[in-house]
Write a structure and sequence with these properties.
2 copies of one chain form a homodimer. Chain A is an alpha/beta fold. Chain A has 12 helices and 12 strands. In chain A, the strands form 2 sheets. Chain A has a 6-stranded parallel sheet with strand order 2-1-3-4-5-11, sandwiched between helices. In chain A, strands 7-6-8-9-10-12 form a 6-stranded mixed sheet, sandwiched between helices. At the A-B interface, helix 4, helix 5, strand 2, helix 6 and helix 11 of A face helix 4, helix 5, strand 2, helix 6 and helix 11 of B. The structure holds a DNA duplex.
Chain lengths: ~325, ~325
DNA sequence: TAAGTTCCTGAAAACAATTTCAGGGCATTA
DNA sequence: TAATGCCCTGAAATTGTTTTCAGGAACTTA
């Protein structure tokens, strides 16, 4: 391809040393006006832009942070990423995103960018690797987690209290007088799913409602799985009078079944979702759901991560940010 | 932070030269078994992983490609990115994603990664910069566009024929006997929007239906804008009997209005969307829409981009891949 | 005038890797 | 025995930048 122009060419053209060019590039004060002028002129004429590979090597920093997600499909991540980007940008960092496609091998490959100094830090949003592996990596590298905690993982983590959130949602349904509450969740056990399910059980227990395994449907992540779940739960002899789904996607799928059966949502059957995705208030009836502070989680994890870069005693705490219940038509609100 | 172990340390520990270590790292054949053994042992003991800043600088390549998108919100991009990733990976490249948040300044900043050799190539998915700027950049750098073409922009581009696609959708509605067809589009003039609108007009013209500006609603990208658009069109004295929206999001918003008014979708009023997003067959009634070959567009643009890296005579053609109509309930299918 | 400052400058080292080149050791061939 | 070839090795050059260090010039101060 085209041969690049280097700092050397600029120096030659401007009749100064490369040190002076570098000084101009980095806006150092100790350069004469004449030199600044000449260098900028040369840069413009040659169309020079510095090679960051050289710079990054010398400085041993890239000012780039990698966000590792499963895929860009869940638009739910977008606010988290915005929080990360805005915070990073304010501190002079760029955020790059890479996807694992749910493959732990590929996740490890992407983490290689961290080990090989291609980025200064990395954030895992919903890791597929196990707690032990991540703990070990986080001990030696600038690695954090966001949205998803890992039981027994000693790494900087920013998330919400999913147990409490699940409990809050189900308690709300109970306070609405419901006693038979279905749960639609997934077989793939992300910690957040497990936590939400535990919240569901705690809410039942505290209210003296016996746990009935028949009311729990384990499926996949897709909306169609929600539809199947609802169908199965509603074909029980002793039907549920409310359903808590661990994601809005599942809840919307579930509602599709209820709608097609002519079930009156919000009265006959209540629905509670999780995530407050965009479609939860586009889909009719509007879905009651748990909202996470996405932007704030992104913001906080980047702040802590960047702090960690500058210290020998990195923070490996677990931060839990407050969630909130969004009440809409599907709970009769 | 922690002080890194370098190739030098490995060499010392393994009692060989750094050249030999490098040869082992790169799986060169001309190294004795003993040396390979010793080096690998040292690597393991020291927990060494090579610093890519050094490697990339020396090799003048990063084997990384940057995909620049507006935001990760539109899940629609995810298939394109999957196509890009799978193709890139097969050729030994990684794909990184960065978001512009619709800011041309930030888009330019991200392109800086290309100029500064931080990545080997970049793909713009829906650029905010103008055709002239991009043409100039593409002349000197490995830059391509995907999903969106730019009128008069001389850069490698992979997209679909949006004029034809709009025309196909509207022609289908006309063939269903509809004569008053509304259009819901956006004021923000992405080329694809303009093209789809032109397709709409061509379809009308070819079928001898006069163009009525009252039937065209210009709004924003959100579903609520679709709702407003539908409300406005349906309050006309001479109501439409079909609506073509330039995105599924707008179509779903529009359908929300129709549903709330008790309008019989698929009979009284037909709907045609664009993109075939996931929700177009989750939302009820299922939406007829235009499907783009997302994966294939991602695949093709990466193939061509990588080809371009290896030649002095880069391909700057416009490739248009075939689209297809997905017929569902909203057109009475 | 001598000594000390301040300002600006360029040569060279440093960053961590790959690659080139020359040569030592050994076996094969004439 | 000498010449040739092959295998393996390490020293040194190379990549593009930043940074350190030493020093020249001009100016101030005693």
């Amino acid at each position: 391809m085209t041969v690049s122009v280097t700092i050397k060419d600029v120096a030659r053209k401007a009749n100064v040393s490369i040190a002076t060019v570098s000084r101009v590039l980095n806006h150092k004060s100790n350069v004469s006006e004449d030199a600044v002028e000449a260098v900028n002129q040369a840069i413009k004429e040659l169309g020079y832009s510095p090679n960051f590979l050289g710079r990054d090597l010398r400085k041993s920093e890239t000012r780039r942070i990698l966000a590792i997600i499963a895929s860009t499909e869940q638009s739910f991540y977008s606010e988290v990423i915005r929080g990360m980007e805005e915070t990073a940008m304010a501190k002079g960092y760029d955020v790059l995103i890479a996807t694992t496609r749910d493959d732990p091998k590929h996740e490890m490959h992407l983490l290689g960018m961290l080990f090989s100094h291609s980025v200064d830090g990395a954030v895992l949003l919903g890791p597929k690797l196990d707690a032990k592996t991540i703990s070990e990596l986080a001990a030696n590298h600038n690695l954090a987690m966001c949205l998803e905690r890992l039981e027994g993982c000693k790494a900087l983590t920013v998330t919400i209290n999913n147990v409490q959130a699940g409990k809050d949602a189900v308690s709300y349904l109970i306070n609405k007088g419901r006693r038979r509450i279905g749960l639609i969740t997934t077989t793939q056990r992300a910690q957040s799913s497990v936590d939400r399910e535990n919240g569901y059980r705690q809410a039942l227990e505290e209210n003296g409602i016996p746990y009935d395994p028949a009311l729990v449907y384990y499926g996949t992540y897709g909306a169609d799985s929600g539809t199947r779940g609802c169908k199965e739960l509603m074909s029980l002899e002793n039907k549920p009078d409310a359903i808590f789904a661990i994601s809005d996607m599942l809840a919307i799928g579930a509602m599709n079944h209820a709608l097609s059966e002519g079930i009156e949502i919000g009265k006959e059957l209540l629905f509670f979702g999780f995530d407050d995705i965009q479609y939860s208030h586009i889909f009719i009836p509007h879905l009651s759901t748990v909202r996470q502070p996405c932007f704030m989680q992104g913001k906080l994890v980047i702040e802590k991560l960047i702090d960690n870069m500058k210290t020998d005693d990195p923070d490996r705490s677990l931060y839990m940010l407050p969630h909130s219940l969004i009440l809409r038509e599907t709970t009769g609100d």
